[in-house]
Amino acid sequence: MNIYANILLKIPMKRISTSSSTLLHHPNHSFIKSFFISNHTVTVSRFSSHSSASNRQTNGFDFKAYMLEKVTAVNQALDSALPLANPIGIHEAMRYSLLSGGKRICPIVCLAACRLVSSDESAAMPSACALEMIHAMSLMHDDLPCMDDDGLRRGRPSCHVVFGERAAVLAGYALLARAFEHIATATQGTAPPGRIVRVVGEIARLIGPEGVVGGQVADLKCGGGGVEQLEYIHLHKTAASVEASAVAGAVLGGACEEEIDRLRKYSRCTGLMFQVVDDILDLTKSSEELGKTSGKDKVADKMTYPKLIGIDKSRDYAHKLNKEAQEQLLGFNPEKAAPLIELANYIVHRQN
Ligand code: GRG
Questions:
Q1: Where do the domains of the chain lie?
Q2: Is the whole model's pTM more than 0.90, yes or no?
Q3: Distances, alpha carbon 147 to alpha carbons 142, 150, 165, 302, in Å
Q4: How many angstroms separate the CA atoms of 167 and 177, rounded?
Q5: Atom of ligand 1 nearest to the CA of 207
Q6: Tens digit of pLDDT for each residue in 24-39?
Q7: d(Cα 5, Cα 40) in Å, to the nearest integer?
Q8: If you measure from the C-alpha of residue 135 to the centroid of ligand 1, how many angstroms do you get, rounded to a whole number?
Q9: Ligand 1 centre distance from Cα of residue 104 (Å)
Q10: CATH architecture of the domain with range 7-349
Q11: Fewer CB atoms < 10 Å away: N or C end of the chain?
């Protein structure tokens, strides 16, 4: 285990162990405790053992080191943004889902977009955390029996399996509310108020009925359709969060409208590409490798890219989207664009 793993390991455990009595009333307290001990090793090994993409270097840019640094910073900021507090039960459920070793793609896109157009990304950290809170809440609600009904998330039992359905619903709402509270309070003083207000508006629009919620509605009632319908679902359900992340970072960094527009296009391509790759992984990887239930699309006879156009054409399409995404970054400072270029490469080559 490397230095990052040690730093990451200490974050949630410190708070949990100092308040272990608060966990004792919970029927799953020993499980929750062991969960917090091991969750961050997942994040670290993801980038340490990743295939060719993690070790590739563009213009001397070390993607693995970059990701470990940013994941560490984001996890620390998330831990501080959501300390264990009263009422304990709901905070435990919120922290269980939030601090559970995800890829942190949205926060990193947000930070990288801010850095792309400015000299400092710190103004984007509260929004980066908020976007991860919203992502965590959408996964918690997506796993509920009334939605996707999935008991496995990030290699662990889903939130509702550990805490119960009612707690998972409420913890999701609480994370959503905390996300916007955090942007409003923690960004103050680091960016002009007009930029903060625009970020709140952009994120709210992109996760609402015109974005993530709209995509989820279309996905739930989808009984057929073709590539166009599938693209609609993925652009709304998945790419909209990446778009919100890139736009939030760019706005906070003071980007002009043309730069914001190019980052929108970059994130829509990478978000869609993420989902095309997800469809391929669902078919080709095991649940252990993915940390979530694999083969579900086939069992549910779901519309996917491999089903509609075949696995080889799906791979070609993912690579085409990667090329299109990277074209949007031409004209920016290449050194500052390197994280977003390599993030796109990571998404297309990822194995879980
Ligand atoms: C956002 C207000 C609001 C409501 C949510 C349930 C719901 C409504 C939407 C479902 C959204 C959803 C689950 C989209 C899928 C997003 C996605 C690409 C998930 C992939 O996640 P992982 O497992 O990510 O690859 P981690 O973070 O674990 O690496």
A1: 7-349
A2: no
A3: 5, 8, 12, 14
A4: 15
A5: 1
A6: 233 444 444 333 433 4
A7: 7
A8: 5
A9: 12
A10: Orthogonal Bundle (1.10)
A11: N
